[in-house]
Design brief:
The complex is a heterodimer of chains A (about 300) and B (about 280). In chain A, about 45% of the residues are buried. Chain A contains ten helices and 14 strands. Helices cover about 35% and strands about 30% of the residues of chain A. In chain A, a hairpin with a 2-residue loop joins strand 1 and strand 2. Chain B is built from ten helices and one strand. In chain B, helix 2 packs antiparallel against helix 3, helix 2 packs parallel to helix 6 and helix 7 runs parallel beside helix 10. Helices cover about 70% and strands about 0% of the residues of chain B. With about 280 residues, chain B is an all-alpha fold. The chains are: A alpha/beta (about 300), B mainly alpha (about 280). Strand 1 of chain A pairs parallel with strand 1 of chain B, so a sheet runs across the interface.
Chain lengths: ~300, ~280
């Protein structure tokens, strides 16, 4: 597998605040999700990868070239920044055409490129309106269009779904999926895991500027074995169930979920635990209505990994 | 987990010479930015002040001053002392600061524009706007003075307007280079710039010491004395016998402006501009 972005021992400090901490990671071609809670260092990583910031330590390369202060590289990368900033007095079409012209295209070529990019993001007839009147979804699409207009090989999207309604979110997901299908490498940052999960199985997890995990979602889930599995058991008499479970040696912790009439069990030996459940359900007064793993959701995977 | 192999560096990515069309687009964008700001409106009103003052002074009093006195007071003192440096400060100090505050700098840094040239083109756009303001104001003020003054000047209006505007443009180059650099060095560029204008360009330039050769105003005044020779020029206490030659003054103003602009461009190219995200990461 080829990598398009490489971080080698990269740290970034803002005075005394650390943005990234000795990060070494290689981002492969294709769509990659960059996950982490707010303040994890996702935007710092993207700003370093797009040459906006200089690493305090280590090296950042994109497509095999140093990212910092490398104008030639900018022809091949695009960034949809998180900040909601524009030249508000411009129309969407004018803004995208200007961005195209700033990459060196002539007027006619830039107009055609802007029309293509705006069509890809589905801006429709709104492109001739002033940006200051755009909805959040339209602003996100416009930002995405400026990142696309020069047809870059690598796209960095910083929280592209922030503030969008469900319809806009679905549409943007489709657009990003489409971009991946055209052979572009896309790095999408998000703190909402199911969004990224629906785009790609390939993820990088950051927390407090450090790499927590990277790889396929399934591979990351294997890492959970180092952590207790969480299993939820639903029962009418959940209190009696909790009292029994707390005595089991393969149970590390028991939490009662009153609202759900359920018990949350943490165990390092899930196989042994599951093997004992049929017998348990046959015991008087502990009829189990439902048993499911709390780890099925990627959100839970993430919580496990960052709450070490 | 597989370790990805590194993609080979692509020779097509090697740096190319800057694209002139991209630089032209940046120039147009910056001009449009400046035209859309409220700043232009404020400065247009300020630059209309000399013409308005000429009209008010001439029409509002029984003694109508001669054209030469009005020209000296308004075009050769008020405009270069206050309006030209103020316009340069407001525009040049904001060359990059404005884009940082409005968070639009990202859109420029993401383009294949060498950072030094990015700065220099934005400075050029700034000089175009401030020079146009100055030229229009000079012409309008001279026209008003010619209409209302008691003793119109003998030499041609167009020639004097061109010379005065040219000299003010030279001062703009010096101030533009200086305040552009100042805007990169400090966020309090407005305060520092006003203090500089008052203390150095106002006070120091008027004192008959060698130190005034460090000011833009000194070279501007020497040029005025050599090329326009106003009768009231004695007030500046400049001995032309010991003052630099005209072309030395021109080269000094241009050279200092260029030197400071180049220094600012290199400083900008090595500076980072962290755009704060809503989440703060």
């Amino acid at each position: 597998m080829t990598s398009v972005v490489e971080f080698d021992g990269v740290s970034k400090w803002y005075g005394n605040v650390i943005g990234l901490n000795k990060l070494t990671v290689r981002i492969p071609a294709g769509i990659t999700g960059l996950l982490g809670p707010n303040g994890a260092g996702k935007s710092t990583l993207l700003q370093l990868a797009t040459g906006q910031l200089r690493p305090s330590q280590g090296t950042v390369c994109v497509l095999g070239h140093r990212a910092w202060n490398n104008p030639a590289l900018m022809r091949h990368i695009g960034l949809c920044p998180e900040q909601d900033a524009f030249y508000e007095w411009m129309t969407g079409q004018d803004f995208i055409r200007t961005c195209a012209e700033l990459t060196g295209m002539g007027r006619r070529e830039a107009t055609a490129a802007a029309e293509r990019a705006l069509a890809v993001v589905g801006m429709g007839e709104h492109v001739r309106r002033s940006i200051r009147g755009y909805s959040k979804g339209m602003r996100q699409r416009t930002k995405l269009a400026q990142a696309l207009v020069h047809e870059p090989r690598v796209l960095f999207l910083d929280e592209p779904f922030t503030g969008t309604d469900p319809v806009a979110r679905r549409d943007l997901l489709e657009v990003i999926r489409g971009l991946g299908e055209t052979g572009r490498s896309v790095v999408v940052s998000s703190h909402v895991l199911h969004e990224v999960e629906s785009l790609t199985p390939n993820v990088i997890l950051l927390h407090r500027g450090r790499l927590v995990a990277e790889g396929q979602v399934r591979e990351i889930r294997d890492l959970i074995d180092r952590h207790p599995h969480r299993i939820i058991l639903v029962s009418e008499d959940y209190r009696a169930l909790a009292a029994k479970l707390v005595r089991w040696e393969d149970v590390d912790g028991v939490t009662m979920l009153r609202r759900d009439k359920a018990v949350l069990v943490e165990t390092h030996r899930p196989d042994a635990f599951y093997a004992r459940l049929p017998a348990l359900s046959l015991e008087d007064g502990t009829a189990l209505r439902e048993v499911y793993s709390a780890d099925d959701n990627l959100e839970a995977v993430f919580n496990y990994l960052v709450n070490e | 987990m597989k370790t990805p192999t590194v993609v080979a560096a692509d020779a097509a990515l090697l740096p190319r010479s800057p694209n002139l069309r991209a630089l032209a687009a940046l120039l147009v964008l910056t001009l449009r930015q400046q035209i859309h700001g409220r700043r232009l409106l404020v400065l247009s009103l300020l630059f209309a002040l000399p013409g308005v003052l000429a009209a008010v002074v001439s029409l509002g009093s029984r003694f109508v001053p001669p054209a030469e006195s009005l020209e000296f007071a308004l075009l050769l003192n008020l405009v270069p002392h206050a309006l030209v440096p103020l316009a340069a400060l407001l525009y040049a100090a904001g060359i990059i600061q404005d884009d940082v505050e409005e968070q639009t700098l990202t859109y420029l840094l993401l383009r294949p524009l060498p950072r030094q040239l990015l700065y220099l083109v934005k400075l050029l756009a700034t000089l175009v706007v401030t020079s146009l303001l100055t030229a229009v104001s000079t012409a309008a003020t001279l026209a008003v003075i010619t209409l209302v003054a008691s003793a119109p000047a003998t030499s041609g209006l167009v020639e004097r307007a061109l010379k005065t505007a040219g000299l003010l443009l030279l001062a703009q180059v010096g101030y533009g280079g200086l305040f552009g650099l100042l805007g990169l060095l400090t966020r309090r560029s407005l305060v520092v710039g006003i203090v500089y204008i008052v203390l150095l360009e106002g006070l120091l330039a008027s004192l008959d010491t060698v130190a005034r050769r460090l000011t833009v105003m000194y070279y501007f005044r020497v040029l005025v004395l050599r090329w326009l020779d106003p009768a009231s020029g004695k007030e500046w206490s400049i001995d032309l016998a010991t003052a630099p030659e005209a072309w030395t003054c021109v080269l000094t103003l241009l050279g200092v402006g260029l030197l400071l602009a180049t220094a600012a461009a290199f400083f900008f190219a090595r500076s980072e501009f962290h755009m704060k995200t809503p989440a703060g990461s």
